[in-house]
């Protein structure tokens, strides 16, 4: 079964850090680009970052977030530093098929940045 399972969300104060993880199974992880996408409750999806041959970031997180993969563990990570209240969202990992969009999604992990 193809599956993505996120973990690592929680409550953090502004300026703090969190690391999200996404465990992949059911497909050859290192053959695909992988992405993080977030959704503020009641709003649309916002692409955050993609890891493929290179890494790519939304301007809103560039310099604060770092995406990485561990192919031995079939796991995608998102290190989030200098968190801001605007980063509060449900964070999804997804398999990124480029122009064909995201074709596999996890259930998400909630990040809340608040004092």
Please tell me about this protein's structure.
The chain contains no helices and 11 strands. The strands form 2 sheets. Strands 2, 4, 5, 6, 9, 10 and 11 form a 7-stranded mixed β-sheet that branches. A 4-stranded antiparallel β-sheet has the order 1-3-8-7, with no helix packed on it. It has strands spanning 3-7, 10-12, 18-25, 33-39, 45-51, 55-57, 65-70, 75-80, 89-96, 102-105, 109-113. A hairpin with a 5-residue loop joins strand 9 and strand 10. By secondary structure, the chain is mainly beta. The chain starts with a strand and ends with a strand. 0% of the residues lie in helices and 54% in strands.
Write the layout of secondary structure elements.
Blueprint: E1 3-7, E2 10-12, E3 18-25, E4 33-39, E5 45-51, E6 55-57, E7 65-70, E8 75-80, E9 89-96, E10 102-105, E11 109-113
Parallel strand pairs: 2-11
Antiparallel strand pairs: 1-3, 3-8, 4-5, 4-9, 5-6, 7-8, 9-10, 9-11
Index terms:
mainly beta, four-stranded antiparallel β-sheet, globular, 115 residues
| Portion of residues within helices | under 10%
Largest sheet: 7 strands, mixed
Backbone structural class? mainly beta
Indicate the low-confidence ranges by residue numbers. Answer: none
Calculate Rg over CA atoms. 13 Å
Number of helices: 0
**Strand segment tally:** 11
Give, in order, the helices and strands.
Answer: EEEEEEEEEEE
CA(first)-CA(last) distance: 40 Å
Rough shape?
globular
Strand proportion: over 45%
Give the integer mean of the pLDDT values: 97
